[in-house]
From TrEMBL:
Subunit structure as annotated in this protein's UniProt entry: Homodimer.
Record's protein name: D-2-hydroxyglutarate dehydrogenase
Ranges of residues in domain FAD-binding PCMH-type: 59-238
Entry cofactors: FAD
Record's keyword terms, sorted: FAD, Flavoprotein, Metal-binding, Oxidoreductase, Zinc
């Protein structure tokens, strides 16, 4: 393989990206306004702050402008101007990301896709629908429900996250154990490359072995290969009534035993966990009650389809078995839709609840069977170095993905906390590497984790990724500085 070599104009491009305002002149501004409309080229401080950031708060956004295109053709025209003048672009969706993948910090042009939010082309035979990248996840879920179908990719930010962003990060969420990641539901997509060309990838086909499936390169690429401008999404049959069970467990090994017992006998649609400290925070700050009086170290949340009484009977029998084995100390099961929703909130409201603590977040993963040892090592190293840090654990234990959240002590400054969390990241990712895991299970790499990519990817893999980026984006204008530096 030919080693990666940066383009000849790399130094020039680097200068331009750091000094974009100097070449963002009235001629370019007028050209952009002609494409999207004068009112949709935003340069005021409030809008630049809004569109230039995501849910991370470690970087101060500093875009040159935010653009709100309303069509594929407008996106293509924007990209062509950006390519001509070597202006960096940052695609922006619902801005719910947790790795600073859509944060603009170097005077880039933000391409906000909110207006491209139409759902059309529903095909009841193929169970597919075409979505603009600005379609909100919950909007697609409701569209499917209204037609007796189901879009199963779900997570806490479904009310604000957008399909384009979900595709760009290959979002997972709470149903992965049964329904997989976003990747599994993208039947086709359209991408505007770094040269302004439009690629129509896979076109909704179920079987297509005609060469490389470029669709799957784009999914999870965090906007570094181009801008997703349309997606053909697969829908599923609507599930039957869902029951939710919350179980109190004494330790992580018991959680694994519970998972094995239930998975051996039942089809689960979700298997989540959260720590006692996470539960205490949620109950104290949300309008929720503890699921039961018994206090345990961890809690497992299970969801299953109860097509008839036999499913619930089976679940209760497994619960009794786990009690007898000492894997479970207490538990409850939903008796209504409202109760199921409240039990889910114990898990889903954690992220929102801990936001005021400016949490350091890490979504890491390993093989499911190794999670207990993995989690114990991570917690031990953090506690030994920074005993004053509060650690909140939760995650999708059924797919090996755990979320480490460290809360900033009130007396500690943000900059100092960020510096200390940088040390934590190195220790944590060294453990991840030993366990053959991933430094980013579902949130992407973005800015926050690009310095640690080598803990999950080999030098050869990273070199190939860079060559792929240049094939799609030869001038390096698409979300530069994310995942890796050219």
């Amino acid at each position: 393989m030919v080693p990666y070599a940066p383009p000849e104009s790399a130094a020039r491009e680097k200068y331009r990206r750091k000094h974009p305002v100097a070449q963002f002149d009235i001629e370019i501004l007028t050209a952009l306004q002609a494409i999207v409309g004068e009112s949709r080229v935003l340069t005021d401080a409030e809008n630049l702050q809004h569109y230039g950031q995501d849910w991370t708060r470690f970087h101060q956004p500093s875009p040159a402008a935010a653009l709100l295109p309303g069509s594929i053709e407008e996106v293509q025209a924007i990209v062509r101007i950006a390519a001509e003048h070597q202006l960096a672009l940052v695609p922006s969706g619902g801005r719910t990301g947790l790795s600073a993948g859509s944060v603009a910090i170097n005077g880039e042009l933000v391409v906000a896709l909110d207006r491209m939010n139409r759902i059309e082309g529903f095909n009841p035979i193929d169970r597919t629908v075409r979505c603009g990248p600005g379609v909100v996840t919950e909007q697609l879920q409701q569209f499917a429900e209204d037609r007796g179908l189901y879009y199963p990719v779900d997570f806490a930010s479904s009310g604000s996250s957008q399909i384009g962003g979900n595709i760009s990060t290959n979002a997972g969420g709470i149903k992965v154990i049964r329904h997989g990641m976003t990747r599994d539901w993208v039947a086709g997509l359209k991408l505007v490359t770094g040269t302004g060309e439009l690629l129509d990838l896979n076109r909704g086909l179920i079987k297509n072995n005609a060469g490389y499936d470029l669709r799957h390169l784009v999914i999870g690429a965090e906007g570094t290969l181009g801008i997703v401008v349309e997606a053909t999404m697969q829908l599923d049959r609507a599930p039957g009534d869902l029951a939710v069970m919350v179980l109190g467990v004494p330790d992580m090994r018991a959680v694994m035993h519970v998972l094995t017992a239930f998975q051996g006998e039942m089809q689960l649609s979700a298997f989540e966990f959260f720590s006692e400290l996470a539960l205490r925070k949620v109950v104290a700050h949300q309008d929720l009650q503890r699921p039961f009086a018994t206090v345990t170290e961890y809690y497992a949340l299970l969801e299953f389809e109860q097509g008839d009484e036999r499913a619930l009977e089976k679940a209760m029998a497994l619960f009794e078995h786990c009690l007898e084995q000492g894997w479970v100390e207490d538990g409850t099961v939903s008796q209504s839709v409202a109760q199921a929703e409240n039990l889910w909130r114990l898990r889903e409201d954690i992220s929102e609840t801990i936001t005021p603590w400016t949490p350091y977040k890490n979504d890491i993963s390993t093989i499911i069977s190794r999670v207990p040892d993995f989690l114990a090592e991570v917690e031990a190293v953090v506690n030994s170095k920074y005993p004053d840090f509060e650690i909140i654990w939760f995650g999708h234990i059924g797919d090996g993905n755990v979320h480490l959240n460290i809360l900033k002590p009130e007396a500690l400054g943000v900059d100092t906390f960020r510096e200390q969390c940088g040390e934590v990241s190195k220790w944590v990712f060294e453990i991840v590497q030993r366990y053959g895991g991933s430094v980013s299970a579902e949130h992407g790499v973005g800015l926050l984790k690009k310095d640690y990519l080598q803990y999950s990817r080999s030098p050869l893999e990273i070199d190939i990724m860079k060559q792929i980026k240049l094939a799609f984006d030869p001038q390096g204008i698409m979300n530069p500085g994310k995942i890796f530096d050219l």
